[in-house]
Amino acid sequence: VAHNGNLTNGLTLRRELVKSGAMMQSTTDTEVILHLVARSRRSRFIERYIDALREIEGAYALVSLTNKKLVGARDPRGIRPLVLGELDGCPILTSETCALDIIGARFIRDIEPGEVIVFDESGQDIHKPFPPIAPRPCIFEYIYFSRPDSIVHGRSVYEVRKAFGAQLARESHVPIDVVVPVPDSGVPAAVGYSQHSGVPFELGIIRNHYVGRTFIQPTQAIRESGVRMKHSANRAAIEGKRIILIDDSLVRGTTSKKIVRMMRDAGAKEVHFRLASPPILYPDYYGIDLPDRGGLLAATHSLEEMREIIGADSLAFLSIDGMYRAMGEPGRDPANPKFSDHCFTGAYPTHLTDQTQTEQQPRQLSLLAEAS
């Protein structure tokens, strides 16, 4: 089983399974699904598989293999993406269309929320075991998670990120000389900002591509070290100029603070900071490793306090309604939001069973704690 996502009742199910005699061999919530399939009393495999899906909560895009079958499944809200492709007459399931491009496969369609699709020697079989509910795909796929060359739910991630940047320029522009992206995830938004504002785009920061993502590193010391190795200033592009830095999001502020200081050390006259997403106020429980609220800068500080912490001359975020307008919507409908925007609003699209237990629970690494 390959799993993109996170189960929000995985720990609860794990404890129930262990109490009933299950022997867990790993620390991943995905193993719970295998045990649920094995525990089902149904005779046919696909019925047992669907039984297991009915017990899990959260976000999941699953691809499973048996000796004779290839199975794909997507959670009823469609929080995580799953697409179907074809290569040489064979089906391919993957989270992003860019994976199809890499191997020369042809995109067929998105797997629908709540859909289970089965391929075997006789062809394909589609099951829809859940009652239909309004989809809520995660908007963070467009902000950061997906690759810019992917098409997610019919939208180009690159074009959406450019639209975020253009909307940001409409909402919070100030007089500047150059637009500088924080590479790589801030580049498309900076392009959109530059095109809309008419201010030149410059690569004022050079990224070392041999260093991984810093915000998902486990400790603050490692994150700070990673920032120093990951980015360096392009002095020729920024010295003596008023610059505006464009990044996709702000989590802890570690990277932002270091980069602002780097820009000043390289001679920038003014350093303004803009984020192509709203303030992240709530943790994620669906597979993006964001910290508890206490570790989220925007959840614990005012806008002015955040500006002072990162050392910028000004700081602004994309508004929530602006984010929706960039997606082609008139704004956010609180009664029926089109996307899962829980990191910004706290409106989680599923139950958070593991988080509402009476005993104190650790977060993403809770399964590791249980196994120790």
Give the topology, please.
Elements: E1 2-7, H1 10-19, H2 30-39, H3 45-55, E2 58-65, E3 70-74, E4 83-87, E5 90-94, H4 97-103, E6 106-110, E7 116-120, E8 123-127, H5 140-145, E9 151-152, E10 155-156, H6 157-172, E11 178-181, H7 187-197, E12 205-207, H8 220-230, E13 231-233, H9 235-238, E14 242-247, H10 254-265, E15 270-275, H11 297-300, H12 303-310, E16 314-317, H13 320-326, H14 342-345, H15 366-371
Parallel strand pairs: 11-14, 14-15, 15-16
Antiparallel strand pairs: 1-2, 2-3, 3-7, 4-5, 4-6, 7-8, 9-10, 12-13
- What's the CATH first level of the largest domain? Alpha Beta
Helix content: 25-40%
Order of strands, main sheet, comes to: 1-2-3-7-8
The Rg value, from CA coordinates, equals 22 Å
Account of the 3D structure:
Strands 1-2-3-7-8 form a five-stranded antiparallel sheet, with no helix packed on it. Strand 9 and strand 10 form a beta hairpin. It has helices at residues 10-19, 30-39, 45-55, 97-103, 140-145, 157-172, 187-197, 220-230, 235-238, 254-265, 297-300, 303-310, 320-326, 342-345, 366-371; strands spanning 2-7, 58-65, 70-74, 83-87, 90-94, 106-110, 116-120, 123-127, 151-152, 155-156, 178-181, 205-207, 231-233, 242-247, 270-275, 314-317. With 372 residues, the chain is α+β, with helices and mostly antiparallel strands. The protein has 15 helices and 16 strands. It has two domains: 2-136, 4-Layer Sandwich (Glutamine Phosphoribosylpyrophosphate, subunit 1, domain 1), CATH 3.60.20.10; 158-330, Rossmann fold, CATH 3.40.50.
